[in-house]
Amino acid sequence: MVLLLPIFMFFFFGFVKIFALLVLVQKIEVAAFYAGRRWQLESHRNVAYEGSFDDRRLRPDIEKKVKESLGCNIPSIRGFLGLACNRIKVTVQRTQVWNIVRLRVPVLPWNIPLMKFKFKDFVVIKYVPNRDRPIGFNLPGL
After folding, report:
1. Which residues on adjacent β-strands are paired with residue 117?
2. Does the residue 138 lie in any domain?
3. Which residue from 37, 66, 48, 56 is spatially nearest to 129, judged by alpha carbons?
4. Beta strands at 122-129 and 98-105: parallel, antiparallel or unpaired
5. 140 in a domain, yes or no?
6. How far apart are CA 124 and CA 8, in angstroms?
7. Which of 7, 55, 64, 77 lies at a CB distance of 3.0 to 4.6 Å from 71, suitable for a disulfide?
8. φ, ψ for residue 14 (rounded to 5)?
9. Over the stretch 37-53, which tens digit does the pLDDT of each residue have?
10. pLDDT tens digits, residue range 70-87?
11. Residue 90: enclosing H or E segment and its boundaries?
12. Based on the structure, what is the number of domains in the chain?
């Protein structure tokens, strides 16, 4: 019985970490939806505002809110999930009809004894329409 308790605790902490990873994936999806919707509603189509407002004030504010929603402002959550909060990025690629909003969340490798897990960055891509009415899609030849 004495030898089974450490083995049980080892598997218990492993399952807790895997469950935390599942919760983190859901939090990343919600944060990406927030980033895409806010970019859709508050960004500008006018080129004069792209550099001054959108890239300098709006995108950093969206990144700040995304980091807060993922738990970067709480040290215990940040440490347990292994978030690399200083490398979380929200990037936006503008096209004529859609804005492509990418949320990249890197996770530090987990150091569980006898198990080493290294994850790739979690990347969520949201296609956000511009504020005006999108161009209708027509099949060629019809």
Report:
1. 110
2. no
3. 37
4. antiparallel
5. no
6. 35
7. 77
8. -65, -45
9. 998 888 877 667 677 78
10. 999 999 888 888 889 999
11. strand 89-94
12. 1
